[in-house]
Amino acid sequence: MPWWLIVLIKSAILLFVVITSFAYAMLLERKILGWMQLRPGPNRVGPWGMLQPAADAAKLMLKEDLTPETADPLLYKLAPFISLVTAFAVYAVIPFGASRSGAPWSIGNVNAGILLILAIASIGIYGICLGGWASGSKYPLLGSVRSTAQMISYELAMGFSLIGVLMLAGTTSLDGIVSAQARLWFFIPQFAGFVIYVITAVAETNRAPFDLVEAETELVAGFHTEYSGLRFGLFFIAEYVNMLTVSCVATLLFFGGWNAPFGWAVIPGIGWFVIKVAAFMFFYMWLRATLPRLRYDRLMAFGWKVLIPIAMLNLVGTAIVVAYRG
Amino acid sequence: MATRKRLYNVGAILRGLSITFGFMFRRRPTIQYPSVKKQHAPRFHGLHELRRYADGKERCIGCELCSSVCPANAITVIGAENSAEDRRSPGERYAARYEIDELRCIFCGMCEEACPTDAIVLTPRFEMSDYRRGSFIYDKDRLLVPGEAGVGTAPDDRPGGIPGDLGRVASIKSTTDIERGYSATWRGEILTKQRKGLTLVKADRSFETRPFETRAARAPQDDTRAPQDDTRAPQDDTRVPQDDTRAPRDDTRAPQDDAEHD
Hints:
The complex is a heterodimer of chains A (326) and B (262).
Chain A: H1 3-36, H2 52-62, H3 73-89, H4 113-134, H5 138-169, H6 174-180, H7 191-204, H8 216-219, H9 229-254, H10 269-290, H11 296-325
Helix pairs in contact in A: 1-9, 1-10, 2-9, 3-4, 3-9, 4-5, 5-6, 5-7, 5-11, 7-9, 7-11, 9-10
Chain B: H1 2-7, H2 10-23, E1 36-38, E2 48-50, H3 65-69, E3 75-81, E4 93-101, H4 110-114, E5 120-122, E6 137-138, H5 140-143, E7 186-190, E8 200-207, H6 215-218
Antiparallel strand pairs in B: 1-8, 2-5, 3-4, 4-6, 7-8
């Protein structure tokens, strides 16, 4: 088979898997939020509400696609696609497992995988910024201004928190980082980095308690106030796919990727990978059910005055240890 | 420092997380309403019903007391004279038109109290939703108990006492607990599990139209049902029709649940 056909088939499979997991992550989130609030969650469509995502998709597709008069039509229509495309593009380099010979299961095996993920993820923010600005309306504008500030502040801390892992592994390739964790997962030596990464990842994906970008109590719906129908759906998909992405990165960088814990190889590597990602996804939903939204100035203070200094200290400490060991 | 303490209180965050995690495994109080229904209070006021005597005659004599007492002006009654050929009610008059606007009605039950013949009663039915406002004006066709469905339930046959909480009707063990008077409003089986005095009924979609069996109907003096016993029926009820001479098939069974009132 020609190489492009293989890539195409792999991409199609991956797209299907990611979209399905988005759909059921959304259902699971509503279920879990329901349980934590003593409600049953969606249970009317299909057994146990299993067909709810299909019903939601059908609803969103049938809704009218409105463009406000004051909007910039081109950017307004482009913004959801920027969010969506960048959210999916990241999966080109994420490995989900490895064959016996050690070749990673990914579409493209890039030796600077983590850098590529960070680069693409930071482009994804343009979707939110442009979408809010191009709506020509005050609440979306405020939402997108907030998102810009929040992204800049938290991306710094996120970058710092990851450098420690890269120094320990001595590589930026994702499968290299995973194989460097064969004996010890990096969340133990890099605990500070891990905590900072998890916090900044919540902020990067605009999830509660850092969802100031769409704070419905103040900003109606923030950047996507004016969006309706399928375009809103695209932002929605992008948010959940981004959640999946940061969970995958946390698994790969801090929790040993597809390495089995304590040598429990009963479940194949890809199974462990899925379990770990699902655990992170659950953690996000759990956080959303628990913590109230931060006030904006405290969000900023927390990012700049707490996370970045700790991340930098962690970085220096790791550098000293790595240099000392040779 | 005060703000710092509040902002970075990790212990509080962990405590919060443990609380929400614990709640995931608590029992949820939700009742899956359309398929599972809650027992209503014994004296619940719902949709109206116009009752009949056991001989099939309407109890309503068109006196319009209900309509005058109604605080919401929801009831319209237009009476007419009975004639010998077309006798609708035992008295002189009957209700030619009887309409209740259920959207105006406040379900206070004063019509029921005012009625001299116990013709209008409030049933526990509450599922009346519809798509058109016009369909909430219930006319006689819809209010009157269908002849084949019996006579309707006398208000006094409901058990006394008002429970403090709709959900805790501990005195009623099951919806088919006929001894207590007011019988089930919906057809269905009782769920075996009962939560703290809250009876749950697994309902199917259909509404119970079977006549409510009442305490009076089960009482020993119920043998008024005995066929062709023309003489004994009226003696213990002054309100019974006096023109029994015409005696269509089973006029004599007339006031079976009135017996109790005297």
